[in-house]
Amino acid sequence: MTHALTKAPAKRQQPRHQQPPTRHRKKANRAGRQHHAGPVTYIVLAIAAFLSLFPLYWNVVAASHTGERVVQAPSPLLPGDQLFTNLEIAWNQVNMGTALINTTVVAGTVAASTVLFATLAGFAFAKLRFRGRNALLAVVVATMTIPPQLSVIPLYQIITELGWVDQLQSVMLPMLVAAFGVFFMRQYLLEALPVELVEAARMDGANSLRVIWHVVFPVARPAMAVLGMLIFVQAWNDFFWPFIALTPDGQPTLQVALAGLGSGNHTVNQAIVLTGALIATVPLLLVFALLGKHVVGGITQGAVKS
Amino acid sequence: MATSVRAAADGSQPSAPPGPRPPQRRKAGSPWRSRLYRLDMKATPYAYIAPFFLTFAAFGLFPLIYTGWLSLHRVELGGSAEWRGLENYTGLWDSSFFWNALANTFTIGVISTVPQLMMALGLAHLLNYKLRGRGFYRVAILAPYATSIAAATLVFAQLFNTDYGMINGLLGVFGVDPVNWDTDKWPAQIAISVIVTWRWTGYNALIYLAAMQAVPNDLYEAAALDGASRWRQFISVTIPSIRPTILFTIVVSTIGATQLFGEPMLFGGSLGIGGGSSNQYQTLSLLMYENGWVTGSLGQASAIAWVMLLLLLFIGAVQALFARWNRKKLGA
Q1: Any idea which UniProt keywords this protein has (chain B) (predicted)?
Q2: What is the residue-averaged pLDDT of chain A?
Q3: d(CA A219, CA A194)
Q4: Superfamily of segment(s) B95-329
Q5: Phi and psi at residue B177, in whole multiples of 5°?
Q6: Residue B18 in contact with partner chain A when CB distance is under 8 A
Q7: What is the distance in angstroms between the Cα of B51 and the nearest Cα belonging to chain A?
């Protein structure tokens, strides 16, 4: 597909929503990334964007029809008028309201604590000298590969003993600080924070707490914001452990409530199920729409270095 | 957790340092000053990393080891443990359900990971051109990443519905007979892989894109001078330059594929835990959940969890070897 770009036929249908492709590429401009995109590039990207967005659009469509209409062929393609009726039912009858609040609490707490602890640990790994630093950093990275399946059985036994089933702290505590966050902040501070700055503050008699507050946090702020967002998304969408620790009818997160809706019997009203999915998705999509660029930047920052 | 919070905030009380742990008081009188300062310098690094290691010890390492212990016992929820040696493991060896789940995990993993990463590579390459509206494309292909497993799967379960789903409707337009996306093994596995691919392609594309943008332009210029076509440049400049990133995404996707749970479960509706009416898409994670929470044999479920860990270690070793071999081949 890529090699065709240079000789893309000039007369191709232009993708919708797109400005016309740039005219002819200059011959002198040879280097890979400086090439202007040809029409084929735009077509392929438009298809990719369409495929990415269509299921989300159809989620809105399905949530705005009656349950009977959703399960009728041909599937509806345009929004109907049942959205608010469905929202009300989902909100009041299937616990989605509670779930939304619970999810906000969980994701907010987890994001805040991860950002705080990951910044401290990331700073230590990036800029402080201490015995065992490299070995411990290797441990941090290695823990990222351990799947949650290895811990859920004992954790479930413990929360059963403690009577914590269906309590939000069961979900929050294991996520208070993630290895990914530590590594992410370490990578950022490694380059962003000059050692001289820390040393100068030390010379002025600042203790560790002041160094953190007046030197590390200000420098780390952009990365902290990005990490907070990434962790918020991750915690918002986390499924496996919450599904075990919480119940759909008790104090679920949105994902658990959705799972309860989805794995119900087949007579369940699919419009309500998909309205639930919409309630779980829209807040994050709003965050993305507002801060999309930063999220994109954050994801790429986190991965490239590693 | 409260202790670690305090330790971190105070910055001078390591709560569980893996290194030496000096006794300490924090009353700043001047004779103490230099000693305190030294102590501060020595202890704070451990205090800063303590929250992570405490959390990991409590919610990662201890459960991991305890799961290993459980896997050698016969345990039921709320009951006491009874020593069984390796019987849980030999039981798996003899169980057709286990081999079925292992095979399904592998095939779904391959069908969902390989096309996903290749498409991501292609998309990243396209996004690397000078584009109008590039911000739109980037955010658009990342939107699925913001969608949860549950929401995405519930939507796709409708789109893939055999009787009224839009995908069969579309295929019907081209004269294709309705596909049994749920009950037939391969269509079901493909449908589940589509969900995974949908959610992660854009994310991986953006990671590749960032790596591509870090490739020095001279390399392309030199290749162009040598008369290399665009395709040639992609193959012999872009791909080798971003090899570490590709390896990173392969590792992450493999780990994700090994633990696949939510997509097959919710895709299957009320039959989800079993992975479909004839376990045609039951993964290891689903089998583990079924053993632990439906059948109630925690020992057996623990054995499956440990098999997953060993599997990941094995895959990790293979990938590490491959990476080393690759580096050698490049003559670094």
Answers
A1: Cell membrane, Membrane, Transmembrane, Transmembrane helix, Transport
A2: 83
A3: 10
A4: MetI-like (1.10.3720.10)
A5: -65, 150
A6: yes
A7: 6
Helix, strand or coil, per DSSP, at residue A72: coil
Report how far residue B307's alpha carbon sits from residue B285's, in angstroms, rounded to the nearest whole number: 11
Contact B141 A48 (CB under 8 A): yes
In chain B, how many H helices and how many E strands? Answer: 16, 2
The whole-number pLDDT of residue B132 equals: 87
Residue A265, phi then psi, degrees to nearest 5: -70, 170
Q: Cα–chain-centroid distance for residue A287? A: 10
Query: What sign results for the dihedral spanned by CA atoms A251, A254, A257, A263?
Result: negative
Superfamily of domain A90-304: MetI-like (1.10.3720.10)
Is residue A36 within 8 A of residue B222, CB to CB? The reply is: no
Q: What pLDDT shows up at residue B32?
A: 73
Q: Report the C-alpha gap between A260 and B269 in whole angstroms.
A: 10
In terms of Cα–Cα distance, which of B302, B307, B265 is closest to B76? Answer: B302
**Cα A80 from Cα A65, distance rounded (Å):** 5
pTM exceeds cut of 0.95: no
Residue type present at position B294: V
The answer to whether the Cβ–Cβ distance between A44 and B259 falls below 8 Å is no
Where are chain B's structural domains?
2-70, 95-329
Nearest residue, CB atoms, A150 vs list B63, B209, B210: B63
Could you report the per-residue pLDDT of A14-23, keeping only the tens digit for each? 444 444 444 4
Chain A, 187-206: which have a CB under 8 Å from a chain B CB? none
B6 touches chain A (CB under 8 A): no
Query: By the 8 A CB rule, do B12 and A208 touch?
Result: yes
Is residue B22 less than 8 Å (CB to CB) from chain A?
Answer: no
What is residue B67's predicted lDDT score, i.e. its pLDDT? 94
Q: What is the pLDDT of residue B65?
A: 95
Q: Report the distance separating Cα B149 and Cα B321, nearest Å.
A: 32
3-state SS assignment for residue B19: coil
Q: Is the pLDDT of residue A31 over 80?
A: no
Contact status of B262 with chain A (Cβ, < 8 Å): yes
Q: Kindly tell me if the per-residue pLDDT of A265 is higher than 80.
A: no
The minimal CB distance from B52 to the residues A49, A182, A277 is found for A182
Mean pLDDT, 10 residues at a time, over chain B (332 residues)? 38 43 50 76 89 94 94 83 89 94 96 96 91 87 91 94 91 91 93 96 92 88 86 88 89 91 91 89 95 91 95 88 78 54
The answer to whether the beta carbons of residues B193 and B110 sit under 8 Å apart is no
Residues 220-259 on A with a CB inside 8 Å of B are 233, 236-237, 239-240, 243-244, 254-255, 258-259
Question: Mean pLDDT, to the nearest integer, of A274-280?
Answer: 92
